[in-house]
Amino acid sequence: MASHWPENVGIRAIEILFPSQYVDQTELETFDGASAGKYTIGLGQAKMGFCSDREDVNSLCLTVVSRLLERQHVKHSEIGRLEVGTETIVDKSKSVKSVLMQLFAESGNTDIEGIDTTNACYGGTAALFNAVNWVESSSWDGRLALAVCADIAVYAKGAARPTGGAGAVAMLVGPNAPLILDRGLRATHMEHAYDFYKPDLSSEYPTVDGKLSIQCYLSALDTCYRLYRKKFDQQQKDTSKQPASLSTFDAILFHTPFCKLVQKSVGRLSFNDFLLSSEEERTKQFPDLERFNTATLESTYFDRDVEKAFMTQSANIFASKTKKSLLLANQVGNMYTPSVYSGLVSLLISGPAQELVGKRIGLFSYGSGLAASMYSISVTQDAAAFEKFVSQLDYVQPLLNSREKVAPEQFSALMEVREKNNHAAPYTPTGSISALFPGTYYLKDVDALHRRTYERTPTISNGVH
């Protein structure tokens, strides 16, 4: 019987948005009275993008979706599903997706499935999976899907503030994609934990148990990786092939709360490979690490000896398969739901496109509370199609370079404005409109009934925003 599955379902186009203003982390160290290198070396962060009160999650999504449709010349009538992943909630009932329907009003297309999906930083991955599932299901009507992730990550004054950031990503999903999600290779782990959560609905700030959050992240990584390995090995019909390991991936990307955690995560996966290898394999692949033969996953989340040994052992793997993906995380900060997809964009723009043709990319997505998945993407073998796909991201680096640096004093003052006026109504924002990138949607005002109105800065004629 002939298969009716759409072929090569995945990401056909990707658009990324980050704030037009940033604060330098070295300057922020001085302003906060932190020790030199605490944010830059200890966390691995160089700059942090932030939004004034002129932008909210709705405006970020309006901007990134409109830019993707314009840049890709996609008609509004061609979209049949649109789902938003976010943890930046401005309304407990009305979805961000419903706000985005403004963009489709003129076309008359109201037949668009999907709403918002929320669980900390995992919502964007859930939106992507749901978009792929829709295309591969009996519900698919032949149109394209949009998976959108956007967040504004802000923290109260203190040690967590430098791990903030903001951004949005929109992904066009459909068949015959340059980036194909590997079918049957999704490994998911979910459990109940209070590592990071937002119980105070009047505040943008989360409640964080830092140590527990890192333990939950690493534990979920362990579980997802082992399950991915198992599913990968089950798919291999040729039993002579090597079982799954870090060598299975040509690149591996992670949700990035801060860059240093990602380097530790690569070491953690190497530690998993070590524990799952035979004695003979350990001797060949992990020389001089016999002292860890009896170590366990559960006892080593904060074991400095294990961490240091396997970060050193996997240093070349990190350098060749992961480091390139940290460009935007280092320069913008934690975007929450778009985080791992900012890593994907960073990887795509980091070198010649032909180097990734036909390669496999592993991705780990984590959201506190908690939800996590590891899955993989296969890059198309069609070099010309992939080079065209990557060339559409040539705006990213120039846009990064064109941002405005803001002094820590001004940044702190703008954060106080956000904090003071969170959920205020009526309210007219005071943040600079001229500082925004061309083609940016911004919050014009909030009326007495909390209804938000948006306008857009002028675009530039060549379509590159």
Automatic annotation (TrEMBL):
Q: Which Pfam families match?
A: HMG_CoA_synt_C, HMG_CoA_synt_N
| Gene Ontology biological process terms, A to Z | acetyl-CoA metabolic process; farnesyl diphosphate biosynthetic process, mevalonate pathway; sterol biosynthetic process
Which keywords are on file for this protein?
Acyltransferase, Lipid biosynthesis, Lipid metabolism, Steroid biosynthesis, Steroid metabolism, Sterol biosynthesis, Sterol metabolism, Transferase
Task: Write out the pathway annotation from the protein's UniProt entry.
Answer: Metabolic intermediate biosynthesis; (R)-mevalonate biosynthesis; (R)-mevalonate from acetyl-CoA: step 2/3
Q: Point out the coiled-coil segments of this chain.
A: none
Q: Which residues form the Hydroxymethylglutaryl-coenzyme A synthase N-terminal domain?
A: 5-178
Q: Where does CoA bind?
A: 213, 260, 264
Q: What EC number(s) has UniProt assigned to this enzyme? A: 2.3.3.10
Q: What class of enzyme is it?
A: transferase
Q: Which SUPFAM superfamilies match?
A: Thiolase-like
Per the record, the domain of life is: Eukaryota
CDD domains, sorted:
init_cond_enzymes
User: Which residues are annotated as active site?
Assistant: 87 (proton donor/acceptor), 121 (acyl-thioester intermediate), 255 (proton donor/acceptor)
Q: MF terms per GO, please?
A: hydroxymethylglutaryl-CoA synthase activity
The UniProt catalytic activity note for this protein reads: acetoacetyl-CoA + acetyl-CoA + H2O = (3S)-3-hydroxy-3-methylglutaryl-CoA + CoA + H(+)
Q: Where is the Hydroxymethylglutaryl-coenzyme A synthase C-terminal domain?
A: 180-456
Q: What does this protein do?
A: Catalyzes the condensation of acetyl-CoA with acetoacetyl-CoA to form HMG-CoA. This enzyme condenses acetyl-CoA with acetoacetyl-CoA to form HMG-CoA, which is the substrate for HMG-CoA reductase.
Give the similarity note.
Belongs to the thiolase-like superfamily. HMG-CoA synthase family.
Q: Which PANTHER family match?
A: 3-HYDROXY-3-METHYLGLUTARYL COENZYME A SYNTHASE, HYDROXYMETHYLGLUTARYL-COA SYNTHASE
* The protein's name in its UniProt record: Hydroxymethylglutaryl-CoA synthase
